[in-house]
Amino acid sequence: MVTTSLVTQREHQHGERYSVKSTALIFWAMVGACGALNAQDTPVPRTQDEAKETPSPVLSAEALQREFDAALKSWSRDYAAAVRDKNNEEAARLRTTRPERAFAERFAAAAAKANKTEAAVPYLAWIVQRGPIEMATAAMTTLMRDHASSKGIRLAVARLGGLKQAIGLEQSRAWLDHVLDVNEDAEVRAQALFTRAGLYVGTRALTTSPELRMAAIQDLKAAEGILSELEGSATSLLRLVTSLRDEAERLEPGLAAPEIEGKDLDGVAFKLSDYRGKVVLLDFWGDW
Length: 288
Hints:
Blueprint lengths: L8 H5 L1 H27 L6 H5 L8 H24 L3 H8 L4 H15 L6 H10 L2 H14 L7 H14 L1 H14 L3 H12 L12 H18 L6 H17 L10 E3 L5 E3 L17
Antiparallel strand pairs: 1-2
Helix pairs in contact: 4-5, 4-6, 6-7, 7-8, 7-9, 9-10, 9-11, 10-11, 11-12, 11-13, 12-13
């Protein structure tokens, strides 16, 4: 507001004119003040760069899994169509664009936002199971460093059985030993025992010896003892453990072949043990 302390005769003579001017000055001063207030209250539009920096909400691992399942189904349909139509160029392109890598990157981003908390475990475990080898190895390294005692790592420990060729015997064994040292979950421990045994027995063993075979059998017996007291998903793991133990005890290279009985082409009964000491070629075949 504008005020005047001195009023001259001229101002009296022209009071009406000055009164109008004063009123006009007061009005515009008020408008200016209101405009300043409005300018402070009105949000400033964000630039495109600022909008891009706004973090997007993190989907749960279950929600990401559903998106992946849908993407894989679509990819499989397109690939099958390309093969059926003998479109070799399209089939080759699709083989390089499977959805696993793109989703592994999304799972990795979600795990990073969880910042070493338990919430990161399902994202990292998914990467170990489905991601490309370099991302799976990095995710397994993080799990072993930050979450080895979590019960959520079981499927990652199971996947280690398939990654052992790429990761190597020494690192695979070190990780499995670490899990058995710090993890108290019964099913995780049984899985680690089974996976560790698989390093030394079975068709995918990395190395073997009589001593390692016996140690593997002890691991499998221990796993059977744990799983026999559990229910649910432990049942399927128990079948795998029992099967590998049978293979380790009866079918490993260097062991005596199990007894085989049957009839020859002439219908005469025979046993494999009848040919002990002779070279025998066994040819197993069948129709499906």
